[in-house]
Design a protein that fits this description.
Length: 158
C-alpha cells in the first residue's frame, strides 16, 4: 500500500488489526489463567468458576472489560498506515511488547500476591478457593489487571 491509501483500506486495516489483537489477547488471558492455576495451586480457578452462576458472570464480565481495553488500545494506539498490509496489521515490536507485558504482569502479579499474603497473616488468601464466587472475583480482578497491562502495551509510544 502506497501513500494513496483510501478510507476504506484504513477501516479494513483497523478492523483486521483489532480482530487479530482481540484474538491474541483472549489466548493470552486463557494462558494466564492456566499459569495462575500452576502458580497458585491453592486456588483452582478453572475448576471453581463454573460452580456458580455469579462466578461465571464475574469471569465473563472481567473478560469483556479486558477485551474492551484491548480494543480501545488497538483503536487509539499507533498504526503503521502505508507500511504494507502485513506490517500494518501485525507490528512485530508491538506484539513483542505484548508478550513481555504478559510475562511481567503474570510474574509481578503472583509475586506481589504472595508478598501481600505474607504481610497480612490474618487474611488467608488461599481461602478464596472455598467459594466459587470468591474465585470468580479473583479471576475478574486478574482479567482487568491484565487488560490494563495490555492496553498500556498497545498505546505506549515506541
Amino acid at each position: 500500500m502506497g501513500s494513496d491509501v483510501t478510507f476504506g483500506q484504513i477501516v479494513l486495516l483497523w478492523l483486521g488489526r483489532t480482530a487479530i489483537l482481540a484474538v491474541l489477547a483472549s489466548a493470552l488471558a486463557w494462558l494466564g489463567i492456566l499459569v495462575l492455576d500452576v502458580l497458585t495451586p491453592g486456588i483452582r480457578q478453572r475448576q471453581r468458576i463454573g460452580e456458580h452462576p455469579v462466578s461465571i458472570g464475574l469471569f465473563v464480565g472481567g473478560f469483556m472489560i479486558m477485551i474492551g481495553l484491548v480494543i480501545h488500545g488497538a483503536v487509539t494506539g499507533p498504526v503503521l498506515v502505508g507500511a504494507g498490509v502485513l506490517r500494518s496489521l501485525v507490528d512485530a515490536t508491538r506484539l513483542g511488547l505484548m508478550a513481555v507485558s504478559f510475562l511481567v504482569s503474570l510474574l509481578l502479579g503472583i509475586v506481589l500476591l504472595h508478598v501481600v499474603d505474607r504481610l497480612t497473616p490474618g487474611i488467608p488468601f488461599c481461602r478464596v478457593d472455598e467459594d466459587p464466587v470468591a474465585v470468580g472475583i479473583y479471576v475478574f480482578g486478574y482479567l482487568v489487571f491484565f487488560g490494563l497491562i495490555l492496553h498500556a502495551a498497545l498505546t505506549m509510544p515506541l
